[in-house]
Design brief:
Rossmann fold, six-stranded parallel sheet, alpha/beta, 19 helices, 12 strands, about 425 residues, single chain
């Protein structure tokens, strides 16, 4: 009832005006503090759009601390782009209409004028040379990209979605091409496979750099330590299957993973009860909608904690874990990079049906142990916890990690910075030549 009322209020003009006013105050408070982020000796200044980009920002921050010639400023969608959220219609929010549709021209022009003012407000305090963003499909960012390009400031997408499933690989590039055609100057991607994704979405080959995953630097360089936790990556009930063609699949059953989630939670309850000294962390996906845990007694255990949002320090959480449990998330692949015991939980009729269209973590080569029943998960966890010598390395095949990570050697962020310097240097040279 309250959720429904809130949804209705969020669509009223008064609510939108109040939201803009509150976020304007936050924006100007942030702008007033920007100078502390500047480095007097910085030659390359990067404006980073932080939309679930925290892992990459963590990797960049670690590198740039030793680089006085580089400065970064991170801004979040709110409060800077709140007007876009308020002004564009619901059909754009839900991607039910192409962003470039003629009927949206008035709101696009209005928002572009705001974005030009926003560019001036930011650059007066932080004269940035380029924009680094995880995507340019965000409707609230596109006019800002255009406003900056008109001033000779390039935008580079550092794609953070490097593990696209076969189903999404088939449908998402075409949807992006239709709804939000790529407009950035360059795309930095994890692998050749991801390069093919963006070629399919309409990006020219010359605009794509295969660099790798910045986040992988954090995992590839983790130091071994004595573990003290279990880490479980939770997931939405329709995760990775919300774009399936159910008619073509001929599936008549429930279209959710409730049975998998419930089984994992039951096993964790048993482990928490039998090992009160062990801390169990259930990490929700940053954009997870369903965050209830119906397994009776799970959340009553003092050694079970739920982590929501996008916390920094995920590599440290992985380093501290006896084992990492999950389903289709990229985080399992990153834990495999860190040479941790990774348990990939997947079974049931629904899984068998959609397996060819989701990520192939059950196959060998990805550094995971495929768990195919609730009993097997319980036995595997207890076996790991009962090791007398602690966190022994698990010898599993990791040969196919390179399919997604290109070079996960701990130096991806350095290579990305080299590419950024090349791109920005080219734009500055072109500007001087005019």
């Amino acid at each position: 009832m309250l959720a429904s009322l809130k949804q209705k209020l969020c669509k009223t003009p008064l609510w939108k005006l109040a939201k803009i006013a509150v976020n304007d105050r936050r924006k100007y408070n942030f702008l007033g503090k920007i100078k502390s982020a500047n480095k007097d000796s910085a030659i390359l200044r990067i404006l980073v759009i932080n939309h679930f980009f925290d892992g990459e920002i963590e990797a960049m921050t670690r590198l740039f601390q030793s680089r006085p010639d580089v400065s970064i400023l991170c801004v979040t969608p709110e409060p800077f782009f709140t007007r876009g959220v308020a002004w564009f219609p619901e059909s754009v929010h839900c991607a039910k209409i192409a962003y470039d549709a003629p009927e949206l021209e008035p709101v696009r022009q209005r928002f572009r004028a705001y974005c030009e003012t926003l560019r001036l407000e930011i650059s007066a305090r932080f004269s940035f040379d380029c924009i680094l963003t995880p995507s340019d499909s965000f409707y609230w960012l596109r006019e800002f990209i255009v406003a900056c390009r008109e001033q000779g400031i390039p935008t580079i997408v550092a794609d953070k979605e490097g593990t696209i499933s076969p189903r999404s690989f088939d449908v998402e590039p075409l949807r992006i091409k239709q709804m939000f055609p790529p407009i950035s100057d360059y795309f930095f991607v994890w692998s050749k496979r991801q390069s093919a994704f963006w070629l399919k979405a309409g990006v020219e080959h010359s605009r794509i750099f295969v660099v790798g995953s910045m986040r992988s630097d954090l995992f590839a360089t983790l130091s071994p330590q004595m573990p003290s936790t279990l880490l479980c990556f939770d997931f939405d009930t329709d995760a990775y299957i919300n774009n399936m063609d159910w008619v073509a699949l001929g599936w008549q059953g429930e279209r959710n993973w409730n049975y998998l989630r419930d089984a994992i939670h039951r096993v964790l309850l048993g482990i928490a009860t039998d090992h009160p000294e062990l801390k169990i962390i259930i990490k929700c996906h940053p954009q997870q909608v369903v965050t209830d845990f119906p397994t009776a007694g799970l959340l009553d255990q003092p050694n079970v904690s739920i982590v929501k949002g996008v916390p920094r320090g995920l590599p440290a959480m992985i380093a501290d874990a006896h084992a990492i449990i999950g389903f289709q998330t990229t985080a399992l692949l990153e834990a495999a990079l860190a040479r941790k015991p990774v348990l990939y939980v997947a079974w049931g009729d629904l899984y068998k049906l959609v397996e060819p269209q989701i990520l192939p973590w059950a196959d060998s080569g990805y550094g995971m142990t495929w768990i195919q029943s609730e009993k097997q998960l319980d036995e595997a966890l207890r076996r790991i916890l009962n090791r007398a010598s602690g966190d022994l390395p698990v010898e599993v095949d990791r040969s196919r990690l390179a399919n997604y990570f290109h070079q996960a050697d701990g130096h991806v962020t350095e290579r990305l910075l080299d590419c950024l310097e090349e791109v920005v240097g080219k734009y500055k040279a072109d500007e001087l030549a005019v």
